Each structure stands twice: as structure tokens, then as C-alpha cells.
Amino acid sequence: MSGSLFQLTVLGTRGSVPVCGRDYSVFGGNTSCYMVTAGEETIFLDAGSGLVNAPVSFSSTPVILLSHLHLDHIIGLGMYPRLSRKGMETRLYLPVDEEENALSLLNGLYSPPYWPLSLTDYAGSLEVNALKEPFTVGDVAIDWITGSHPGGSLVFRLRYRGKTLVYVTDYERDDASYEMLVSFARDADLLMVDGQYTTEEYPKRKGFGHSTPEIGIELKDRCNAKRLLLIHHDPGKTDRIMLLQEAILRRENVRFAREGEVYSI
Ligand SMILES: [Zn+2]
Ligand SMILES: [Zn+2]
């Protein structure tokens, strides 16, 4: 693997709940999970149902970053095959104050009667950490700001060898956070933004914590990002609807993320 490789693999880009069937074959039905490869390092953005299809073996310990704890962002964790492999270690970071809280929060879902095992009962080892200070994974610098979403959600920035990826999932525009976001995402090479609702749908879903493709495009222009991937697709939007929506937007370097695709950063 090249030491300068910096790429994003889309494992799941659906919001709210997984969907399946022939109407979802283009954009995919798994919920939020993206695999970032940076040289020898692997960093997952969120652990939605897409994580179940992720590779298991890596040359260094993979890291999972959770933007927040809504079910669509953690539902893949319990079925990620790597957790069941003895001797394999995975590190996970989530936004809480203390490590103890971090593990118990996740085990609030991953324990009987909701799930047969707690996350410490798997054969592999999962190290659960609270996000406190910006940190590095190999040569990848990771930092974040707080976005705008019911219960909170983090916006992550990953920088590697002069290139920048910014991940803005589960984000509803408000004036204060938006201006912060513009400077945080300045000159991003790849910007990923929640585009769950159309501008027409948005007024009825105000307060649900999501944005529109137009908000993503405006953010791309304001922060001078090179490319925009629209993410967190609404589970009610079939391929036909989304292809139509994409054709109407018709903007250079703007695309709805498709499960299975790989993007160079
Ligand atoms: Zn979500
Ligand atoms: Zn959410």
C-alpha cells in the first residue's frame, strides 16, 4: 500500500435506518460508515450498519470515530466481525467526558436484553476512549468541532500530508455553528455534508437535525472546498428519486455518496 494513499471508501451512507431492495441498489441501504485509508492507517467514521461489511485485517490497529450515539451510527458495531477475532484490537473514540462513561454508554445498548453480549465480552479487544483533545493516528491529525443536531454531533476534520477531509454528518444549519463550520472546513479537499432533505421537505422537518443539498453546496462554495459528497440519505428516497435530484442539482464536483465507491482525497 502506498504511504501517500489517502482515500475514502463508502460503506454506508443511509440516514436513520437501513433499507434494502432493488430500489436502493445505486446509493445503497446501509447506515453511516466510511472507511478512511491514510497510508498504513485505517480510520472509520461512524459505525452504522455499513461497518458489518468492512475489512477485518489491517497492518495497524484501526480506529473508529463516532460523531454521536444515535442508533444509525452505532448499529453495526456489534456485528463487526473483527470484534470476534481473538487477538485483534480496535480503538474507538466517542464524545463523552470520561472513559468509564464512554463504555457504559455503548453498553447501554450492547447488553441484554437488547443484545446478547456487552462490548467487553467479544473475543477481540475494543478499547473505548472519550474524545478529549485533538490527536493523531500515525500521520493523520484529527480534530473536531461541535455541530448542530438534537443531542449533539461532532464534525470531524482529518488531515494527512497536506490534504483535508471534513465530515459533517447529522447537521442542521444554524447561524452560529455555520460560521464556525465555514472556517473549520476552509479549503477542504473533500467535504462531506448531510443532505438528507430537499429544500421543499425541510420546513416540515425543521428541528430534526439535518440539512439539504443546497446547504451543502453553499458551504462548499463558502469554504472553498474542492469536492462535495452529500451524505446521510433519507431512507424514503429510492435510487430513482435521488438520481433525479442529483440531475437537477447538476453541479460540478458535487455528488450523492454511493455505497461501495472509493474517493481519492
Ligand atoms: Zn444519523
Ligand atoms: Zn443523529
Low-confidence parts lasting 5 or more residues at pLDDT below 50?
A: none
Query: What ligand species are in this complex?
Result: zinc ion
Here the CATH topology equals: Metallo-beta-lactamase, Chain A
**Shape assignment:** globular
Biggest sheet, open or closed, and with what strands and sense? 7 strands, mixed
**Number of distinct beta strands:** 14
Tell me the strand percentage band: 25-35%
Strands ordered across the widest β-sheet: 6-5-4-3-2-1-14
Distance between the termini: 16 Å
Please, what is the CATH homologous superfamily? Ribonuclease Z/Hydroxyacylglutathione hydrolase-like
CATH class: Alpha Beta
Q: What is the helix content?
A: 10-25%
Number of spatially distinct domains: 1
Taken in chain order, the helices and strands follow as: EEEEEHEEEEEHEHEHEE
Structural class: alpha/beta
Number of helices: 4
Using only C-alpha atoms, the radius of gyration works out to: 17 Å
Task: Walk me through the structure.
The protein is of the alpha/beta class and 265 residues long. It has a single domain (6-264), classed as Metallo-beta-lactamase, Chain A (4-Layer Sandwich), CATH 3.60.15. Helix content is 15%, strand content 27%. It contains four helices and 14 strands. It has helices at 99-107, 175-184, 213-223, 239-249; strands at 6-12, 33-38, 41-45, 63-65, 89-94, 125-130, 135-137, 140-146, 154-160, 163-168, 190-194, 227-231, 254-256, 262-264. The strands form two sheets. Strands 6-5-4-3-2-1-14 form a seven-stranded mixed β-sheet. The longest helix is centred in the last third of the chain and has 11 residues, at 213-223. The protein is globular and about 50 Å long. The mean pLDDT is 95. Bound molecules: zinc ion (ZN) (2 copies). One zinc ion binds next to loops.
